[in-house]
Backbone:
């Protein structure tokens, strides 16, 4: 939810002697979860990932990089962050993060900061498909060195796939 929309909604709530919204992020989240239809809450989002249902012979295939994925999302008409970039070294990344941090207060939406992703999707290991509590899992992310080190994972190890709270695969 954009900041200006949040302010507009709270002004409307004041007129109606209703409870004010705490912040734009909670307002957007609550708007999506409510069972009562809400009008006039202009929600916006940036798409960052595209999944395919391989069981239905999708015409789109997996992407080799995050950049490729974002470009396809744009081509399909989704809004993506206008500031996404691909870098060749850590110094470029650091400069970009500093620049974005200086612009943060001027954004028309709240932000926790810059998301940095490894652009090479080969860091996602493909698994034989597993159906787990109604979800089909066929990839595992291998980008978190601390996670791998803390579990002493090695090439060739067998792993158990479970869901945290019946939602997030682990």
Residues:
């Amino acid at each position: 939810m954009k900041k200006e929309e949040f302010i507009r909604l709270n002004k409307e709530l004041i007129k109606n002697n209703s409870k004010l919204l705490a912040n734009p992020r909670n307002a957007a989240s609550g708007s999506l979860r409510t069972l009562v239809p809400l009008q006039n809450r202009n929600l916006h989002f940036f798409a960052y990932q595209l999944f395919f249902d391989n069981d239905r012979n999708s015409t789109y295939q997996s992407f080799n990089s995050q950049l490729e994925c974002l470009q396809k999302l744009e081509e399909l008409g989704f809004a993506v962050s206008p500031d996404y970039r691909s870098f060749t070294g850590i110094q470029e990344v650091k400069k970009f993060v500093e620049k974005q941090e200086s612009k943060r207060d001027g954004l028309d939406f709240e932000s926790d900061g810059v998301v940095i992703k490894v652009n090479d999707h080969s860091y996602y290991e493909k698994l034989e498909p597993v159906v787990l509590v109604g979800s089909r899992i066929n990839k595992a992310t291998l980008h978190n060195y601390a996670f791998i080190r803390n579990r002493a994972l090695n090439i060739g190890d067998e792993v158990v796939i479970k869901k945290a709270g019946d939602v997030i695969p682990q």
